[in-house]
Amino acid sequence: LSGISLALFSDESAAIFFSWCESYINHGKKIIYDNNYRPLLWQSRVQAQQRNKTMLKYCELFLPSLEDQAALLDISE
Question: Does the pTM of the predicted model rise above 0.70?
Answer without folding.
Answer: yes
